[in-house]
Amino acid sequence: MKKSLIALGVVLAWQGTAQAQSLPDGIASAVKWGSTAVQLRYRYEYVDQDKTANPANASTLKSRLTWNSGVVNGYKGLLEVDNVSVIGAERYNSTVNGLTSYPTVADPEATVVNQAALSYSADTWNTMLGRQRIVHGNERFVGSVAWRQLEQTFDAAHLVFTPNSALTLDYAYSWRINTVFGPDSPNGQLDGDFHLFRTDYKVTGNQTVSAFAYLLDYNDPVSNSSNTYGVEYNGTLLPFLKPHLAYATQTDAGDNPTDYSARYYLAELAASWHGFTLTPGYEVLGSDAGKKGFATPLATLHKFQGFADKFLTTPANGIRDTYIDLATKRFRTTTSLTWHSFKSDENGQDYGNEVDFAVAYPVTNYLTGMMKYAHFNADQVATDTDKAWIMATMKF
Question: What is the domain count for the chain?
Answer without folding.
Answer: 1
